[in-house]
Design brief:
Layout lengths: L9 E4 L3 H4 L1 H5 L4 E6 L3 H4 L2 H11 L3 E5 L8 H14 L3 E6 L1 H13 L21 E5 L11 E6 L4 E6 L7 E4 L9 H19 L6 H15 L2 H5 L5 H21 L3 H13 L3 H17 L3 H10 L5 H12 L7 H11 L14 H11 L3
Parallel strand pairs: 1-8, 2-3, 2-4, 4-5, 5-8
Antiparallel strand pairs: 6-7
The protein binds fe (iii) ion.
Fe (iii) ion binds next to α7.
Length: 367
């Protein structure tokens, strides 16, 4: 057996962890750029906790709250220019995947002149502002990954910056913030976490340790799906959700994502489907496709979820996500054609070809 495993992020998990471990946050620098969205970080208390903790340790901060859902390239260059003008020396990301990913790009661009055409090259110098990430949704796992996913208008899809320099230094995981998510956000982000755990198992880069984390994440997540659907999550459910989504991040940090994420991006870009919803809709037909070739691998996933077969998984996801939108056939054919050209598809243990992908799209996005 040979494999590698790299996870350089320090985790602090638990209620009140930002203030409890404030010293570790303050040790990152003297002036922070807090990157967040426009609203949620204020309503769920996370921004207040970070600001209060920084003040307590004599650190100053400025807030960049211009990060919308699915941030684009302009947003991160703007954030980096603001960081430079303000002379900050560390970054604190507060929120869901959008601010957490934008913060990584901003931390890099604040230190390096990366031309726009080279933004997704993955070839960056080592300079980056130290980062702390405070997730307030349970889906992306960005707090423990070396990826920053941004919308690229030129490529008409979402694209990923990937480099070990994009790992945050610390992740503060406080499940209390999750209770403020609207139901759709909670369900869609959980579907994203589920997708990371499943895709990690179906990646050519899966290894015994990433499998162990993925299976633990799937077991934890499966127990929360019904409470999520009924909007009846307890404190323990939110803990499990956040734990599972961080495990999902640790998994894809090793394995990266596979065909499901590649296929989900055009649905988000062109039809504004939430990232997690797009993945969640594609997962059942993708598993149905994969089980024909690698039944033992799919069985491991289903067993961890407490399900007997792919049909049970389909029913579970339908009940969780509701009716899918119906999209024009010609659009789906175009996305399948484009996805077939994307090298990352080869990261999938059973890589679907263009016809397979069209069939998966059609099954996912019909009544
Ligand atoms: Fe994702």
């Amino acid at each position: 057996m040979t494999f590698g495993f790299h996870m350089p992020v320090k985790l602090r998990f638990g209620s009140g962890c930002v203030s409890q471990y404030g010293e570790e946050l303050a040790a990152l620098g003297s002036k922070a750029l807090i990157v967040c969205g426009r609203n949620s970080a204020r309503t769920n208390g996370s921004l207040g906790d970070v600001q209060q903790t920084l003040a307590q340790y004599g650190r100053t901060c400025v807030v960049f709250d211009q990060v919308d859902a699915n941030p684009g390239i302009d947003c991160v260059y703007e954030g980096a220019a603001f960081a430079r003008a303000q002379g900050v020396d560390f970054v604190v990301a507060v929120g869901g995947g959008s601010p957490m990913d934008a913060a990584k790009a901003i931390a890099l661009l604040a230190c390096q002149d990366v031309p726009r055409e080279a933004l997704f090259s993955g070839h960056y110098g080592p300079e980056v502002l130290p980062m702390a990430h405070v997730p307030t949704t349970a889906g992306t796992g960005s707090e423990v990954t070396p990826y920053a996913v941004l919308t690229n208008i030129q490529a008409q899809t979402k694209m990923s910056m990937a480099s070990p320099v994009l790992f945050p230094k610390i992740a503060f995981l406080d499940p209390r913030y999750l209770a403020y998510m609207p139901k759709a956000t909670a369900v869609h982000t959980a579907a994203d976490a589920l997708s990371h755990l499943v895709e990690g198992m179906l990646s050519v880069k899966a290894n015994p340790l990433s499998d162990a984390l993925a299976l633990e994440g799937l077991r934890r997540l499966s127990a929360c799906l019904t409470p999520l659907e009924r909007e009846a999550c307890t404190r323990e459910d939110y803990e499990a959700l956040l734990y599972a989504s961080t495990l999902g991040g640790m998994v894809i940090a090793q394995t990266s994502t596979v065909a499901v994420h590649v296929m989900g991006y055009p649905l988000t870009y062109h039809h504004h489907l939430d990232h997690g919803l797009a993945n969640g809709l594609l997962l059942p037909p993708f598993l149905r496709f994969t089980v024909r070739h690698r039944p033992e691998r799919v069985d491991e996933i289903l067993k961890a979820l407490g399900l007997t077969d792919v049909e049970a998984f389909e029913r579970r996801m339908k009940s969780l996500l509701g009716k899918p939108p119906v999209l024009p056939q010609s659009d789906l054919a175009g996305y399948a054609r484009r996805c077939a050209q994307i090298p990352k598809i080869a990261n999938t243990i059973v890589p679907p070809n263009q016809q397979d992908m069209l069939a998966i799209y059609q099954a996912a996005l019909s009544e």
